[in-house]
Amino acid sequence: MAGQGVDLKCCKVGGGTGTEPRQCSVKAGIETEREKHTPVKQDTAWEAVLKAMATGRKRDYVSRGIAQGWKIGQKAFVKNYDPSVLSSVTYLLYEIKWNYRRRCWQRWIRCAGGEHAEIYFLEDVYKKLRYDPFVHCSITCYMSWSPCGDCCLKIIDFLEKMPNLSLVIYVARLYWHKEENNRQGLRDLEYFRVSIQVMDLPDYNDCWRTFVDDEDKYEDDYWPRHFAPWIMLYSLELQSILQDIPSCLKISSGMNQPPVFSLRVDKKQKKALASANPY
């Protein structure tokens, strides 16, 4: 025992002779030795991802400027998914579908500043799928703004732990589309098997039917045909990003004035952008 560093000092215990070993010290010494040789439990890949996302952030989502729910109100959807308006709030609607008979899972997330909605989205998906991380499923996201470059990297890191999950992202607008970090992030997502598209009219109608609260709807369908010019402009710009050619979309905005959109395409860009959605 002494060779293991166990304390064998004596003390009086009850009515003993005073030469009994100190059982408490012996036990403590044994436990210390066990701790030395017991391997520390390693986090699973999923736990590591969640901890990395949570580092330095408050767990109170209200204090993080985030709200979420099952169904979004009609006014909130129409206002925040209008591509002609540069909203300061980010909404993210998403649906999980499994490859077997099981009810789809729909949620909406809103971020009004501070932490980006994509972070909460990843945490939310983790909570839903953590007990079966290798399940085959697909997720479709409808975002009012495209993810920034940093969020794109976090999404990729997350998907690396989920080999059987497919992700499709539809966006109403492009977030700081001239920033190279954001442009590269979108290209990285596409390279990592993530489909990225600008929301088209059928996508708006699908969102209307799937995510908007039935009690709020003023009609069964939603076809905002007046969005067509902005859908075209953002589609062309997304093509320029994914094909790694110079930006062709310019957006100017002033105080208390609606944003002005303009398109500048040279000969090189015309050919590259031919596959964009025409209007």
Can you put this structure into words, describing what you see?
By secondary structure, this protein is α/β, with parallel strands linked by helices. It has helices at 23-37, 45-54, 74-80, 117-129, 149-160, 180-191, 201-211, 228-242, 267-272; strands at 66-69, 90-98, 105-111, 137-143, 165-171, 195-198, 249-252, 260-263. Strand 4, helix 5 and strand 5 (165-171) form a beta-alpha-beta unit.
Shape: globular
- Report strand %: 15-25%
What letter string, H or E per element, gives the SSE order? Answer: HHEHEEHEHEHEHHEEH
> Could you name the ranges where pLDDT drops below 50 across 5 or more consecutive residues?
1-43, 53-64
DSSP summary, beta strand count: 8
User: Order of strands across the widest beta sheet?
Assistant: 1-3-2-4-5-6
Mean pLDDT: 78
The chain-level structural class is alpha/beta
Task: Note the main sheet.
Answer: 6 strands, mixed
Q: What integer value in Å does the Rg equal?
A: 27 Å
By DSSP (H or I, 4+ residues per run), the number of helices equals: 9
Distance between the termini: 84 Å
* Helical percentage: 25-40%
